[in-house]
């Protein structure tokens, strides 16, 4: 049994591509816990950084991803965004207004 390639190749497929969804996994941007964890790995275990805020670099990373998502047209094809309830994931609101958001 052959699976069609990602570009929609003409070979037989287990599932028709028109019935499949694409899953994008996005890691959160840089948070304060990442900076402190780079200095001292034990900082990752600190309750102080459990729900860490983004750093200025993290917000720049969010903005860069937002620009890419809109420029590529991906924002028009997103049906659902699933996020963690942590503060740093709240930056995900750049997708589009009518997207279903679960955390």
From TrEMBL:
A Gene Ontology cellular-component term: cytoplasm
Gene3D superfamilies with a match to the protein in the record: Phosphoglycerate mutase-like
Membrane-crossing segments per the record: none
Gene Ontology MF annotations: phosphatase activity
InterPro entries named in the record: His_Pase_superF_clade-1, His_PPase_superfam, PGM_Phosphatase
Signal peptide location: none
Highest taxon, organism lineage: Eukaryota
SUPFAM superfamilies: Phosphoglycerate mutase-like
Family assignment from sequence similarity: Belongs to the phosphoglycerate mutase family.
Name used for this protein in its record: Phosphoglycerate mutase-like protein
Organism whose genome encodes this protein: Castanea mollissima (Chinese chestnut)
């Amino acid at each position: 049994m052959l699976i069609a390639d990602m570009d929609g190749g003409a070979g037989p497929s287990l599932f028709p591509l028109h019935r499949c969804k694409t899953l994008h996994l996005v890691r959160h941007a840089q948070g304060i816990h990442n900076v402190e964890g780079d200095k001292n790995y034990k900082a990752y275990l600190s309750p102080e950084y459990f729900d860490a805020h983004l750093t200025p670099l993290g917000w720049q990373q969010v903005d860069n991803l937002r620009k890419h998502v809109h420029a590529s047209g991906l924002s028009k094809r997103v049906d659902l965004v699933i996020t963690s309830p942590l503060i740093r994931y709240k930056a995900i609101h750049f997708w589009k207004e009518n997207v279903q958001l679960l955390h």
